[in-house]
Amino acid sequence: MRVTERISDAKGQLLTQPKIEREGWWTSLSLPEEEVIALCEKRGLSEPFHSEIKSDLERWLSGKLATNALVLSLGALADNILRILGQSGLLGKFSSVRHEAKRRRVRTVIQELICVAARAIRTGRRLKLQFGRHCPAFDAFGSVYMKFCPA
After folding, report:
1. How far is Cα 137 from Cα 96, in angstroms, rounded to an integer?
2. Which terminus has fewer CB within 10 Å in the chain: N or C?
3. C-alpha dihedral sign at 143, 92, 116, 83
4. Which positions ≥6 away from 66 have C-beta within 8 Å?
5. Is the pTM of this model over 0.85?
C-alpha cells in the first residue's frame, strides 16, 4: 500500500486542502514492499507493446488452442527480432527517422529497415545488395547488418 499527499496540482497551483491518494496492490510475490511497488510502476511501460501485438492479432486463426499458441509464440519471436533491429538501427546516429524516440513501433521498423528498395546482384559467387544513391535508410541498414552479420 502507498499513500501520497499532494499540496499542489500538476501545474504547480497550490491546493486549499491537501489531496490524499491511496494505492494498493494484492500480490503473491514474496518481495519487499518497495520492489513490488517498483514492479507495478514499470507495468505501464509494457502496455504499448501489448496493445501493438493485440492490434496485429485481431482475431485468432483457429479454434484449436495448440495452433493459436504456436502462432502467438512465433509472433512474439518475430516481434522481439524486429524490436532488436529497431533498437539497434533506428535509435542511434544512423537513424533515418526524423525525430528522436526511446523506442520505435514495429510498423516503423518494417517500413524503415525491411521494406527498403535494393537490387540483389550476384557477383563473384557472392550475393550483394545495391541500394539507391540517396537511400536514407542505407546507414541504418548497414549498421544493423554489421552488428549482427560481421564479416
Report:
1. 6
2. C
3. positive
4. none
5. no
Contact 60, 54 (CB under 8 A): no
35: cell is: 520492489
Q: What b/e string do you get for 87-96 counting C-beta neighbours within 10 Å, with b at 16 or more?
A: ebbbbeebbb
Which distant-in-sequence residues (6+ apart) come within 8 Å of 73 by Cβ?
Answer: none
Q: Give Cα 10 to chain centroid, integer Å.
A: 28
- Fill in the DSSP letter of residue 124: T
User: Distances in Å between the alpha carbon of 55 and those of 24, 35, 51?
Assistant: 30, 31, 6
Residue 96 in contact with residue 137, Cβ under 8 Å?
yes
126-137: burial string, b at 16+ Cβ within 10 Å, e else: eeeeeeeeeeeb
What are the pLDDT digits (tens) for 74-100? Answer: 888 888 888 888 877 777 676 666 666
Asked if residues 49 and 76 have their Cβ atoms less than 8 Å apart, the reply is no
10-35 exposure pattern, b = at least 16 Cβ within 10 A, e = fewer: eeeeeeeeeeeeeeeeeeeeeeeeee
For the chain, the C-alpha Rg in angstroms (whole number) is 23
- Residue (of 110, 82, 84) closest to 97 by Cα position: 110
Q: What is the mean pLDDT of residues 9-36?
A: 87
